[in-house]
Amino acid sequence: MLNTAWVMSPITKIIILLLFLFLSACATTSSEPDSDKQAELYRQAMESVKSGYYDDALTQLQVLNKQAKTEKSREQIELSIAYVLYKKGEYEPALKQCADYVRDNSGHPGVAYAYYLQGLIKSSQGEQHLARIMENMSPGDDYPEELRQAHAYFSELVSLFPESAYTKDAIQQASRLRQQLAAFELYAARYDLVQGNYPEALRRARYVDNYFTDPAIRKKAKQLMVETYKQAGNEEQARIIERQIEELSISNPSVP
What is the DSSP string of 140-205? Predict the structure, then answer.
């Protein structure tokens, strides 16, 4: 029998989990006459999110937040508002909403989601920043710092909440971000090489070689170092790095 939890998208699982948590909060106050009405309004808001009607969802959630009778309900609504702001592209308000939640709810299970959402937001910001850099074809001193910040959020989530519903995806997201950061460093290093800025090209390539563990990425960094040393006229140092590449290939035969 197919386990549908594995085929649902992360976004769908997020919406379902938020809805479940809110309904659980409503269940603790079932004696209140407005509980069913609030639960239905929340369901409508989540349907608006799934349909892409983010303005409608935000309005519904803001109304619901004012009507919430318990702190637990308000906490879930606040997380949902942060998610909708993220989907609308209002990244800074979404980040502030998450940061406020983490500050006010230390140790609460919802903090795991707040870290996860902050990682997604910073990933989006970083990828947009990276696209602008690549479009200009001139990295210079520009750097997609948001990608590094996103990695930090995902790493914090994995460290603090290893059993959370978001941990598996956070690990995958962090791995993807490392690939992006390494690719950017190598792109910038090659740009420096073309410009004849050999010290900076070597610095970037060494950084990738020293701080990234993926053998394929390290091999690319070393190959760039060889090319830089040769263009700089340092054949001896180029041969040293070439021997390191041979050793790396022997110890990792699957690396192309």
Answer: TT---HHHHHHHHHHHHHHHH-TTSTTHHHHHHHHHHHHHHHHHHHHHHHHHHHHTT-HHHHHHHH
Cα separations in angstroms, 54 against 82, 86, 90, 100, 109: 11, 10, 11, 21, 25
Q: Which domain holds residue 223?
A: 196-256
**What are the helix (H) ranges across the chain?**
10-27, 35-51, 54-67, 71-87, 91-104, 110-136, 145-160, 167-194, 198-211, 215-231, 235-251
Answer whether residue 239 is part of any domain. yes
Q: Which of 233, 191, 236, 228 is nearest to 206 (CA)?
A: 228
Closest to 146 (Cα-Cα) out of 92, 188, 98: 92
CB-based contacts of 170: which residues, under 8 Å, 6+ apart? 115, 116, 119, 154, 157, 158
What's the structural domain count of the chain? 1
Question: Would you say residue 11 lies in a domain?
Answer: no
Task: Classify residue 172: in a domain, yes or no.
Answer: no
Residue 202 near residue 226, CB atoms below 8 Å: no
pLDDT in tens, the chain (256 residues): 333 333 345 555 555 555 544 444 444 433 343 577 777 888 888 899 888 999 999 998 988 888 776 666 777 888 999 999 999 999 999 999 999 999 988 878 889 999 999 999 999 999 999 999 888 777 777 899 999 999 999 999 999 999 999 999 999 999 999 999 999 999 999 999 999 999 999 999 999 999 999 999 999 999 999 999 999 999 999 999 999 999 999 898 888 7
- In a domain? residue 47: no
The token pair that represents 95 in the structure block: 């980040």
